[in-house]
Amino acid sequence: RFEVIREGDLVLDVGCHPGGWTQVAVEITGLRGLVIGVDLLASAPIDGAHLVTGDIMDADTQSRIIDLLTEGQCVGGQLLPEIPTDESRLFNSIVSDISPSLTGQYDRDQAISMELVAMVFDFTLPLLAPGGSFVTKIFQGTGIEGIINAAKNRFSRVQRFSPDASRNSSSEVYLVCKNRLPK
Length: 183
Fold this sequence. Notes:
This protein has about 180 residues and is α/β, with parallel strands linked by helices. The chain is built from 4 helices and 9 strands.
């Protein structure tokens, strides 16, 4: 709907378990794309994707993601030897479906969700190319305007989106950020 992933893109899927968004990203990016998924839980292998099991906030996990991103060109999901370029390889799209382990205490769950979104944003934004997209699940509530304002300083288009599949009573929405502004 928002065309945040295109053929040939380099995509990072944060919170990828069980793998549905990763599969969609692989289909869209095609043979020249690169899709990296990361989650605390292991996912079944997905042809054309590189899956990392670990905490996105852990330095070792971050290093593995950066290594996969910078390792080389990708054709058909297979990394080829590095081809020198004048520019670093950066992601075109970052999608995050990360969610805290819910406690049932809404205020606490929402605060933890906001913190996760902010941490993912802080780690991944330097890895996102100018013109790139960032999409994240977020729980509405205290602090959401701060995240939205931070995004508006870095993207030309920022909007909230509530999928039809979400329950009417759900506070879960997606923040869709398009066209990352140059530094």
